[in-house]
From TrEMBL:
E.C. numbers: 2.4.1.-
UniProt record similarity statement: Belongs to the UDP-glycosyltransferase family.
Source organism of this protein record: Phaseolus vulgaris
Enzyme class: transferase
Signal peptide: none
Cross-referenced CDD domains: GT1_Gtf-like (cd03784)
SUPFAM superfamilies (UniProt xref): UDP-Glycosyltransferase/glycogen phosphorylase
Protein name per its UniProtKB record: Glycosyltransferase
Organism lineage string: Eukaryota, Viridiplantae, Streptophyta, Embryophyta, Tracheophyta
Amino acid sequence: MEFSGVEGESEKLKAIFLPFITPSHLVPVVDIARIFAMHGVDVTIITTPENAAVFQSSVDRDASRGSSIRTHHVKLPHVPGLPEGVETINLSTSRDTASILFETLTKTLQTQFPQLFHQFKPDFIVSDMFYSWSVDAAAEFGIPRLIYVGGTYFSHCAMDSLERFEPHKKVDSEDQSFLIPGLPYNLQMTRSQIPERFKTPNSFSYLMKRVKESEKRSYGSLLKSFYAFEGPYKDHYREIMGTKIGNVGPISSWVNRDASDKSSRGHGKEVEEGWLSWLDSKQKGSVVYVCFGSMKNNFSGTQIAEIAHGLEDCGHDFIWVVGKIDEGQSKALVEEFEKRVEASKKGFLIWGWAPQLRILEHPAVGGVVTHCGMNTVIETVDAGLPMVTWPLFAEQFFNERLLVDVLKVAVEVGAKEWKTWGDFGNEIVGREKIAKAIDLLMGGGEECEEVRRRVKALSEEAKKAIQIGGSSYNSLKDVIQQMKTLKLQKLNPKVEEPVA
Ligand code: UDP
């Protein structure tokens, strides 16, 4: 790992980072900010105090190790409908509050941008995809904007094809499958698995249209992928966008090197370690880790009961990140379940935030049940673990196809219904399907061994990508070099244009 300190303060490349306020965007964008700082860029991360608290300890640790990195707080104004102290969009945030918060934050950042620009004098900005306004703000001040894009290239290529060819409008029913054309792979999906916005335009369709337009006008895009994971789709995506594209993944292991970094990531404080002694008592590769991302527990009581039974019936030891369950029947059921599996030593439940990176690297963990959120997918592949896929919302059904059909590193639980986050939908995945998929993954049969071999090979590639000379390493270095050249060019117009 490289640290700053070679260049004089005046020549140092300066950047400001604008992360979004959902955990699954905040966590990787902060990691990306940290890797830029570790490679000599002077970095200021701009966010609200509540969001900064989630990663401040990591930033402080990096600064004490020599990185030039800091956080700058922006305060949100009092606005009717926005409860005091609510600064994050997660499952506890109602839809109305989320939209007021988004609007308030956007206005605040946009209004303060000129002052932030004069205060920090950035040479470039890295903005989350949801701040589409920042492409114009950067242009106004004559600096390049890099956009952080969540999701896989694969999913963005598939969504672009849906917009372009509308194959889902040519089938008669929700469960009829159709081909998504124009991709390097013949991707088949059903109408019920694609996001609602492709069927009926809604406010999210318009938001995503603005995101895409702003991406096309950006200097370049950063995704936390790596070339061996989905190289042909990266190339396809570059053609769609017509801009420069940089891979910076797997970012989580590149940046979070020690136990403190890993434990506090996404949470701000270290998590109590009961899970560690429980895992230490288990045999190598015997435990399945079950987690549905930072928006976890997007399930009805009936579905929660089926998960509990499925886990009890699957015949394998498990950690289940339950998250937060409000009072009521489901909570009583899960508490009862917890007592039983604790007594039999079959399972361990985590009720809040799990230290996911540490759990994934524990030798006792042998597989993962995931909702296919992009962060978890990359972290799991990086850890060399096969998956049971159970997509729920966002672009997760596309990610499932990449994992199951293209890379063949996962088995599917058989979910069929795309849901809006925060909405339970109608589908119930039954206990038999859950237990069967886990047993297929963990049971040691030939199919499962093949899957394991493939994901281990991919994990090796992930590790190579971030080493000196690896594809993501070179990609990061290229982006930094291009930003330096643009800065020099501004100071001295005779300097040549950077090449991608
Ligand atoms: N995460 C974690 N502990 C939890 C839940 C999530 O550390 O209990 C982290 C996980 O490692 C990942 C991110 O939060 O980096 C979740 O992002 P993902 O894309 O997987 O899912 P989303 O939150 O978007 O549904």
